[in-house]
Design goal:
The protein is mainly beta. The chain contains one helix and eight strands; from the N terminus they run ββββαββββ. A six-stranded antiparallel β-sheet has the order 6-1-4-5-8-7, with no helix packed on it. A two-stranded antiparallel sheet has the order 2-3.
């Protein structure tokens, strides 16, 4: 298995809502930058896991788990944000099932 994708994990903990300006202030903070293996979830597996075909779902495999708290990740400096759906930690690697962030937290 090749770990040929750069996975960046970000935290939004410093981001606060300012009622005076009616907007969020602060930004995302990079908490980890690791190499990983990324594959798409197929249509039949998506139907089994979610009960319907969900687009934009990927499986991210890492050598070691990320110990820090993170809100979303990006793959290969893409502007698309992915949020965690579920994670498994088998004997050797870590698998994270992520979906595209569509504006819901």
């Amino acid at each position: 298995m090749r770990y040929n994708h750069e996975i960046k994990f970000f935290n939004e903990g410093k981001r606060k809502y300012n009622p005076v300006t009616s907007s969020y202030e602060g930004g995302s903070e990079l908490v980890a930058d690791v190499m990983g293996n990324v594959t798409d979830v197929g249509a039949d597996r998506s139907a089994k896991l979610f009960g319907s075909i969900v687009q934009g779902v990927k499986v991210v495999r890492l050598v070691e788990p990320i110990e820090k708290v993170w809100a979303y990740l990006t793959i290969d400096d893409s502007p698309t944000k992915y949020r965690m759906r579920t994670t498994t930690i088998p004997l050797k690697n870590v698998s994270i099932l992520v979906g595209e962030d569509i504006g819901k937290s």
